[in-house]
Amino acid sequence: xxxxxxxxxxxxxxxxxxxxxxxxxxxxxxxxxxxxxxxxxxxxxxxxxxxxxxxxxxxxxxxxxxxxxxxxxxxxxxxxxxxxxxxxxxxxxxxxxxxxxxxxxxxxxxxxxxxxxxxxxxxxxxxxxxxxxxxxxxxxxxxxxxxxxxxxxxxxxxxxxxxxxxxxxxxxxxxxxxxxxxxxxxxxxxxxxxxxxxxxxxxxxxxxxxxxxxxxxxxxxxxxxxxxxxxxxxxxxxxxxxxxxxxxxxxxxxxxxxxxxxxxxxxxxxxxxxxxxxxxxxxxxxxxxxxxxxxxxxxxxxxxxxxxxxxxxxxxxxxxxxxxxxxxxxxxxxxxxxxxxxxxxxxxxxxxxxxxxxxxxxxxxxxxxxxxxxxxxxxxxxxxxxxxxxxxxxxxxxxxxxxxxxxxxxxxxxxxx
Length: 417
Fold this sequence. Notes:
Layout: E1 2-8, H1 10-13, H2 20-31, E2 35-42, H3 46-57, E3 62-66, H4 77-85, E4 89-91, H5 93-106, H6 112-115, E5 119-121, E6 125-127, E7 136-141, E8 144-149, H7 153-171, E9 178-186, H8 190-196, H9 198-202, E10 208-214, E11 217-225, H10 229-247, E12 251-254, H11 259-269, E13 274-278, H12 284-290, E14 299-304, H13 308-315, H14 319-325, H15 330-344, E15 348-354, E16 368-374, E17 379-385, H16 390-409
Parallel strand pairs: 1-2, 1-3, 3-8, 13-14, 13-15
Antiparallel strand pairs: 4-5, 6-7, 7-8, 9-11, 9-12, 10-11, 15-16, 16-17
């Protein structure tokens, strides 16, 4: 089966957003043995979209659309496909009920154009949207299949993984269970990880392995096909053993875990508390933790000490230390971590200081960052020499602090069975 992904939205052509959906779907299709030969992007124009559909039909068996399912006039994907395929649009009762319920919960009146989101191609298999309003659908016309998915990644990704992939697996002729396991790495680059795993990647059959890099992190998705769930799990366990042998020291989590969710779960699960003193990150470390459910049991508080004066007044950092060592130094980061831990009476104290960039600060080049974490037994420090944009450097500093915290709590074996 050959597939083509058609992303619909003028904002993609204007460069206002990235087409991350195509990458995500392509990786998922590869796991099913479905080849993606083309990625197409088309604006919110019915004529150009229909032309893209005709071209895709001439060379692909499966056409996957993302975007254009919303309530506005420029959301025209399903209308265009219905007209092209000679079918009509009908309301899906479950989707319409869900949309009405959302407006009721919000205490808002549902306008008629919002009903449009509940329209589906007649005869299509409906994919309910548990993270938004517009449902997706899989429609078959002649010898072509049309999969329509919402544009926002937070809606598209869970719909594709949980609902679309099983349907596509059957279309591709596979009826057994398909199981995936995502391995998450920090502290190693994509190129280095692929180099270490080259033999494993070159000789993969079942499970298949798909590396993917994000900002400062690398993930590998292993996907196994088998006749039973138990056999698929056994195949994934074998792949994990090999991955751990090759790069286990960089593995911090699985599946939907992130550095911050892992750090938060370890704090909460072990009954530990934390506070933070932040300079260049200006509260970002605490903000990231605060997004995690139940974190109030662990996050006691903290201070933003952006200037040298604030470090002295809020944390009692000696002026002599700041003058001698500088605000961007290992000694200052350590002093901040120890002082905030004592101030809030927590198990861990985090100190973050540095030159976010692009300009130098305190005689240090932009991107120089010191991270320190203090506990009752020790203070660990790490220097980062970053080369990204200003806000990227701040985000990477927070990720590094989260990773240090995971290791300090003792998460050398991250699987929590």
